Amino acid sequence: MLASIGALLTSLVEGVAGPLFGWLNKKADADLAAFTSERGFDLQGYQAYLTAQAQVNQLKASTNTWGGARFMVFAFGLPAALHWGAVFFVSTIPQFGWVVPALPAAYASAEQTIALSFFILAPTMPIASAFASWVHRQ
């Protein structure tokens, strides 16, 4: 009698659990197929991103080989900055008795703008760019 009850329970569990486990297996297979296709899509996206990054880096490298920017800094920025700094130093500390004539008012603002753009604004641009890249990566 115990054997017949065990056989009945076994057939009942197989009758209910078999289709349930079959459905769960099909659902897992569908999830695996979706994951596999999304993984392929992500892989293509990452490869496109890396290709674009390589092209951007090549462009940056090609622009860094031009020496005109350094020439402009030395030809225009350095003399203006030295003169503006000397006028600022002499007017701030007059104890030395040095005299550095200031430029006429029409040119003084241009000299100040050149000095500030070359030696204050220019160094901050790579810092801002690095910060933006860091934020983009986060």
Tell me the count of domains.
2
Distance between the termini: 68 Å
The major pleated sheet works out as: none
Question: Helix and strand succession?
Answer: HHH
- Separate helix tally: 3
Low-confidence sequence ranges: none
Extended strand count: 0
What proportion strand? under 5%
Helix content: over 70%
Overview of the structural elements:
The chain is mostly helical and 138 residues long. The protein folds into two domains: 1-65; 66-138, no CATH class. The protein has helices at 2-64, 68-92, 105-137. α2 (68-92) packs across α3 (105-137). The radius of gyration is 37 Å and the shape is rod-shaped. The model has no long low-confidence stretch (mean pLDDT 79).
Short description:
With 138 residues, the protein is mostly helical. Helices cover 88% and strands 0% of the residues.
Provide the descriptors you would attach to this structure in a database record:
rod-shaped, single chain, 138 residues
